[in-house]
Design a protein that fits this description.
Helix content: 10-25%
Structural class: alpha/beta
Mean pLDDT: 93
Low-confidence stretches: none
Distance between the termini: 22 Å
Shape: globular
Strand order of the largest sheet: 4-3-2-5-6-7
Strand content: 25-35%
Oligomer: single chain
Number of strands: 9
Radius of gyration: 16 Å
Bound molecules: 1-O-pyrophosphono-5-O-phosphono-alpha-D-ribofuranose
Length: 182
């Protein structure tokens, strides 16, 4: 049912599986002795983070924040708002933020700065998808699954008006889907 709204698949399920495995190996190598807090930015992080942490062969703690910037549309509003804060201090801890996408860079930059201000020993970012063409602020994620061109993508956590997060792959939406709703 969801497939019919997708114009092009950018990351298939097999591709995502390979990416997650590779990132898990890199993170295991870099963090095995650091007992990091892996922080997911809700809600987009859920499928990626869930798969990624199972490829990380080490002790970790999990925590979540809910940051909003898009409010459901296809363009970033530019506002970054903390809807739900972490339930634990990050002071003197290594922090790894798991993101589904870095687009304008506003969300992640704000969160990284906040966690550094709170005294984290290190703050790094792993993102499934990086869209550097969307940047409005200079930012380079530390671990990138795949770089994609400037297109509006949905699936595997990424939404359009809260829908399509449960699509098991990442793809572009047919313009007719969002044009019909305007
Ligand atoms: C999306 C995405 C990132 C952010 C990236 O979150 O999950 O957190 O936008 O965009 P940026 O680089 O332009 O800041 P959103 O605010 O839509 O919330 P969601 O995770 O609930 O979809």
């Amino acid at each position: 049912m969801l497939d019919k709204d997708i114009e092009k698949v950018l990351l298939s399920q097999d591709t995502i599986r390979d990416i997650v495995k590779r990132l898990g190996q890199e993170l295991t190598r870099d963090y095995h002795d650091k007992f990091p807090i892996v922080i997911g930015l809700l809600k987009g992080c859920i499928p990626f983070m869930s798969d990624l942490i199972r490829e990380m062969d080490m002790h970790i703690e999990l925590s979540f924040m809910n940051i909003s910037s898009y409010f459901g549309g296809i363009e970033s509003t530019g506002d970054v708002k903390i809807e739900m804060d972490l339930g634990m201090p990050v002071k003197n801890r290594h922090v790894l933020i798991a993101e589904d996408i870095v687009d304008t860079g506003r969300t992640i930059k704000a969160v990284v700065e906040l966690l550094k201000y709170r005294g984290a020993l290190s703050v790094k970012v792993v993102t499934l998808v990086d869209k550097p063409a969307g940047r409005v602020t200079e930012y380079q994620p530390d671990y990138v699954g795949q770089t994609i061109p400037k297109a509006f993508v949905v699936g595997y956590g990424l939404d359009y008006e809260e829908k399509y997060r449960n699509l098991p792959y990442v793809g572009t939406l047919k313009p007719s889907v969002y044009m019909n709703e305007e």
